[in-house]
Amino acid sequence: MGNAVRVLVVEDEALICSFVEDALSGSGFEACSVHTGEAALSTFRDGREGCRALLTDVNLGDGISGWELARQIREITPDFPVVYMTSASAPDWKSQGVDGSLLIEKPFAPAQLAAAVSQLLDTGTGSG
Predict the structure, then answer these.
(1) In the beta sheet, which residues pair with residue 118?
(2) Burial class of 94 by CB neighbour count within 10 A (0 to 12, 13 to 18, 19+)
(3) How wide is the angle at C-alpha 99 spanned by C-alphas 94 and 101, nearest 5°?
(4) How many CA atoms lie within 13 A of 33 on its CB side?
(5) Domain boundaries, the chain
(6) What digits encode the pLDDT tens for the residues 9-59?
(7) In 96-128, which positions are buried (b, 16+ CB within 10 angstroms) versus exposed (e)?
């Protein structure tokens, strides 16, 4: 299990975060969870966690949004895989989301979550 792909999970609601962690681990991924965009940026910049994809809620309370978080991470690593999770902000994805990202709407099944992350990792590591 030491070679599981780590996913940076950003979700401010504890129950949803726990659900996402379980869904990822059940599909062979490892979740590195934080609860704010600022904490996610710090974790990403630090680099010690070795995360290979971002899975973020769009609405993260008072701090930066998931949209802004993804933009800042893409400034550091332009092709970093991004999956957004949202219940209300799906219509904004075309204008706010970063290129090549995916969006899954809450509520979603664990398999949908794993499939979205897998899809981006597969396309991100392909031809290049």
Answers:
(1) none
(2) exposed
(3) 80
(4) 20
(5) 5-124
(6) 999 999 999 999 999 999 999 999 999 999 999 999 999 889 999 999 999
(7) bbbeebbbbeeebeeeebbebbbebbeeeeeee
Q: What is the pTM of this model?
A: 0.92
Which CATH homologous superfamily contains domain 5-124? Response regulator (3.40.50.2300)
Structure confidence by residue, pLDDT tens digits, 47-94? 988 999 999 999 998 999 999 999 999 999 999 999 999 999 999 999
DSSP-derived 3-state class of residue 8: strand
Give 74's Cβ-side CA count (13 Å radius). 15
What single-letter DSSP state applies at residue 16? H
Contact predicate 111/117, CB 8 Å: no
- Name the residue among 14, 15, 55 with its Cα closest to residue 37: 55
Angle at CA 31, nearest 5°, toward 1 and 120?
A: 95
For 64, the token pair is: 């930066």
E strand or H helix at 29, and its extent? strand 29-34
